[in-house]
Input
Amino acid sequence: MTAQQDEMAALAAEGRDLDDLVAGLAPEQWSLPTPAPGWTIAHQIAHLAATFRVAGMAAAQPDAFNAMVARIAGDFNGNVEAALSEYLNDPPEVLLERWRAERSTAEKAIAAVPPNQLVPWLVRPLPPGVLATAGFMELFGHGQDIADTLGVRRTPTDRIRHLVGFAVRCWDFGYQARDLPTPQTELRFELTAPSGQVWTFGPEDSPERITGPAWDFCLLAVRRRHRADLALSATGDIAEHWLDIAQAYRGPAGAGRQPGQFAELDRR
Output
């Protein structure tokens, strides 16, 4: 299996797991409020449907994608709301089918792009495998919101290595979101996979280190848990600060989650 095939397989598996979580929901459950302020489960799936539609367009119709980006530049929150609105009026069963269709279309379009060809994206072009991993990040983060709403504790798998690598690649996003200068010193990451394997990234001799469970690292990177509730450790002032601002996505950081917010669920 090539690296891109592995990334695509992880994306598809994460999508299936989230699909299993929402497929059997009663209509009224789609209106349950999630930990994201103002967002219901329907908002979460609508956001994912819109995100995958845009990713599929970028992979299969790059000119149309670039034209769309030129039209919407400059209003992040307004564009998020506009994208959601195209799906939110659908009844749950229609929204679910539309999300499945957008996901399937995007997966096929990204998989068809040659590994050495870049796909246009919101900030800069990306290799197709990296775009697939960005989609994985979206599924993981919004899937966690839905799991927390439903009181479901997800089972960690080693496919999160793709999200770990993506978050390390985007380690400077937290600084950019807050208009802070990115430190010159690179971080060293030593993270333990669900299987027990240790994944390492960054200079081995860096004095700035992040260590701990890879699952906790992913929850931190998508800002679905407060660092106080995670078993992550920092060595060095830069690493210590990074744990406060880490995020694996562009745009505003948002309020994040509060310490102890999910203590009862996480103890199960």
In short: The chain has a mean pLDDT of 93.
